[in-house]
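Exercise 7. Given the encoded structure of a 263-residue chain, write a plausible sequence.
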């Protein structure tokens, strides 16, 4: 077999290993998945009418607020899911399996590739589940063409890839699973400080730069525009730039840590 074939075989083996772990221990994924679903139900049925009146300047319209918050919650779902990746990677490091893999005749990057590929697949599955809940309670994508749906899916996959690499780096550099979970918490908190639930221009002036100059806001505005037919402006390029930059940073951070000789 060629070196490329061996690398693909080893990466596929590691991917199946991580998917089996997710299937055997689903509690972590389910706990993280419940956060965006509970926020969706909370904001729609408890705050929906009041929030929609404040955003639109008209009468309360819960259906309009569902349309507004779903794009942000889909991206928040990715942030929640990759926290489990950080914990899983940290467990592998602390339990010694990574040290064992280092001594085996396998393609070394395949260990990380298996974690990343498995996490991206779990993120997409989680997004589909949260999206199904959103459709069940009234979300409808209006004026979106097939090309825009494809672009929205591509953005979600690229976003998942970028944040998965960041989560892998966090897991590799955390001393234990608890620390990895705590270190990855900003991936859940950042969407709360973005335009996911309210427009940036409705926030206090001193807080607007925090909400605007972070990766979630341009990605949310881009996804919202693709699904609802609203203007995207420069947010599309910003979202892609954030994703590519974070993916490169996470990949460099993760591989340099993984390849470092253990002390």
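Solution.
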């Amino acid at each position: 077999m060629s070196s490329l074939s061996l690398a693909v075989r080893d990466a596929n083996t590691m991917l199946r290993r991580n998917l089996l772990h997710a299937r055997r221990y689903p509690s972590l994924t389910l706990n993280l998945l419940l956060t965006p679903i509970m926020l969706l139900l909370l904001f729609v049925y408890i705050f929906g009418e009041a929030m929609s009146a404040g955003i639109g300047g008209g009468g309360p319209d819960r259906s309009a607020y569902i349309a507004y918050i779903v794009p942000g919650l889909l991206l928040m779902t990715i942030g929640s899911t990759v926290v489990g990746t950080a914990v899983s990677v940290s467990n592998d490091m602390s339990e010694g399996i990574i040290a064992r893999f280092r001594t085996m005749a396998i393609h070394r990057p395949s260990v990380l590739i298996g974690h990343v590929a498995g996490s991206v697949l779990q993120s997409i599955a989680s997004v589909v589940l949260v999206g199904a809940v959103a459709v069940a309670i009234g979300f409808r994508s209006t004026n979106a063409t097939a090309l825009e749906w494809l672009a929205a899916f591509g953005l979600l996959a690229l976003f998942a890839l970028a944040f998965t690499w960041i989560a892998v780096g966090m897991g590799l550099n955390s001393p234990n699973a608890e620390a990895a979970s705590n270190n990855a918490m900003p991936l859940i908190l950042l969407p709360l400080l973005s335009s996911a639930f309210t427009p940036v221009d409705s926030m206090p002036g001193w807080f607007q730069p925090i909400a605007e100059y972070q990766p979630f806001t341009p990605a949310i505005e881009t996804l919202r525009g693709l699904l609802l037919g609203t203007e995207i402006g420069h947010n599309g390029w910003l979202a892609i730039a954030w994703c590519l930059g974070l993916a490169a940073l996470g990949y460099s951070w993760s591989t340099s840590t993984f390849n470092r000789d253990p002390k």
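Remark. The first helix runs from residue 3 to 24. Students should compare their own answers with the one above.
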